[in-house]
Amino acid sequence: MSQYKLDYLDLLEAESIHIMREVAGQFERPALLFSGGKDSITLVQLALKAFKPGKIPFPLVHIDTGHNFPEAIKYRDEVVERTGAKLIVRNVADTIKAKGLKEQTGKFASRNALQSYTLLDTIEEFGFDACIGGARRDEEKARAKERIFSVRDEFGAWDPKRQRPELWNLYNGKIAKGENVRVFPISNWVELDVWNYIKREQIELPSIYFTHEREVLVHGEYLVAVSPFIRIDEGDIIETRHVRYRTVGDMTCTAAVESTASTIDDIVAEIHKTNISERGETRIDDQISEAAMEDRKKNGYF
Amino acid sequence: MDLLRFITAGSVDDGKSTLIGRLLYDTDSIKVDQLETILKQSKNKSEGEIDLALFTDGLRAEREQGITIDVAYKYFNTEKRKFIIADAPGHTQYTRNMVTGASNSDLIIILVDARQGVIEQTRRHSIIASLLAIPHVVVTVNKMDMVHYSEAVYNDIVLDYMKMAEQLNIKDVTFIPISALNGDNIVKPSANTPWYEGETLLNLLETIDIANDINLTDPRFAVQYVIRPQSDDLHDYRGYAGKVVSGVYKKGDLVTVLPEGIDSEIEAVEINGEEVDIAFAPQSAVIRLKHDIDVNRGNVIATQANMPRVSQEVEAMLCWMDNKPLTPGNKYLIQVHGKTVRCVVKEINYKLDVNTLVKHDNIQQAGLNDIVNVTIKTATPIVFDSYESLRANGGAILIDETAFTTVAGCMLQ
Hints:
The complex is a heterodimer.
Chain A: H1 8-26, E1 30-33, H2 38-51, E2 60-64, H3 70-83, E3 87-91, H4 92-99, H5 115-126, E4 130-132, H6 141-144, E5 149-152, E6 180-183, H7 191-201, E7 212-219, E8 222-225, E9 238-244, E10 255-258, H8 264-273, H9 278-282, H10 292-298
Parallel strand pairs in A: 1-2, 1-4, 2-3, 4-6
Antiparallel strand pairs in A: 5-6, 7-8, 7-9, 8-10, 9-10
Chain B: E1 2-9, H1 16-26, H2 32-41, H3 60-65, E2 72-77, E3 81-87, H4 95-103, E4 107-113, H5 120-131, E5 136-142, H6 151-168, E6 172-177, H7 201-207, E7 220-227, E8 239-246, E9 248-250, E10 254-258, E11 262-271, E12 274-276, E13 278-280, E14 284-289, E15 300-303, E16 309-320, E17 331-336, E18 339-352, E19 359-360, E20 371-384, E21 395-400, E22 406-412
Parallel strand pairs in B: 1-3, 1-4, 4-5, 5-6
Antiparallel strand pairs in B: 2-3, 7-8, 7-15, 8-14, 9-13, 10-11, 10-15, 11-12, 11-14, 16-20, 16-22, 17-18, 17-21, 18-19, 18-20, 21-22
């Protein structure tokens, strides 16, 4: 019977590919939200495998806050080049200007919450009925209760009470006009699964995931990259450290971790040893309140 | 390393949250920052003592509105296995949540309070486990510390449960005396129960054989999407992307495309764009056929020697999940794998009392959390097996035609 045995990564991959194909089969105009982070990179790999020898039958969409790591943008363009996928970029800065939105102020002011406006506009502009995202249930407790097919109203709002029960592997993607579905194919993966998969599939990553020297602002436990997007005050401690990124978000709200890990093996070993969660260690925006993620999701965040 | 999905059944009072918290905590699956948040909230506790139940704490929306979201998922792993826990709230009225969580589970942990023994709730959870055909049942007799780790109390509960299980067609049952609060027999064998010679709960979860739960004898392939690159080098390529629901597929298999019943032969089986010798459940694969026939999403490719049922009328055990009641004559959409067709629920044959197994006739309506046996007529034929004989191909959902909500889970018969 051993020839029929699948490894846990095979099982996770099979489930995620099944979900990708459900999206392509059930929706008219799906899109894949791509940030250049490891989770959305994993999504691209799964989408490639799901539709071979055909191309990915939906575009990649990048909601660009303007506060990206240049390395992530470079990587994004390389992926598009390599896979022949269609890329759509929409800028948060344009939404801010057009809608007269008020930006956050303060030390680590972030456009993270404003991204939702641009995302909703983009969904409307292209008539997307499904957006595939790289959220995982292990990240955060609001995400632990998220469905794989998450129905959103025309404001993109997540209503925990309206969630549809999800049984077996049957995903109900029926929606009314104006609604859309957020789909999370790697819901059941944890951080280490993603890394082990990247290692197994030998997927290239943006260079900032590996150790490099960087000028950082030392803010309590957080190391924040010095960039034009953060305010430096008198008395701030600026140091050059060996760091890498455990997660890649905006330069304004993603903290680096001290590390000398230069290969994926090093990174996997490091994550095995760490006793701090991914979001706890790196996401300044989640530390504001216990329900920060829950609130963002209700406002259309993915 | 493989993967085990399990569900825990019990209420907060049975120590279910504490048990999950204990499993996560004792396998080092909780990070320091998450622990700090919990410590801050662990009120009424002496210094340094953690309220393990808080690890499964709900959302603000749930606290404010007094609602409970159907299922929350928790993850942990050991060297041997990755585990996915479906944590379904265990209140009396939440049959719906348990059915949802149970649908994907390989195993169920049923919590019994040692002081109370087998009660109505235990029976309800076991009936649902049996209806959903969860392959493995583990009965944890919790709060053994409250009964002085008494072997006699434990043995009585085991006997009581076995008596009940006989009626329910539950096959694989294991019993473990535990204290989730103190960690007895969860990860480490307990010195408090020298009379218990079985495994710890974690050891059982790590080693229980689940490979044989997957059906590899009845080939069913559900087509999800047709791949047609239409590029210069792949001009005539037509690949049927889908899931091997059960069984094994290989080149040369004589197959029939259902429900139409058109025969063909497998030209190639592909995974990741490359031809493979076999594809088997639960792999995602692509099948190419020798003949140029019309195959679409919703079709099932079966082997000619082993066919599923194709019918426009089916009986089903159904768990009703909507606030709006089910009335015979109502029309819905039924979804079976990639196929969604209109249907009408012709008749409610009986309602099953999930506490007593009694069947009630003359039922005019089914409400939220009711389990009923119905006759469904579909607009066009659907392809399925009886849930009892082939779990992977016997599940379906009903969808409201205008609100598009999922209103029922069906075990087809």
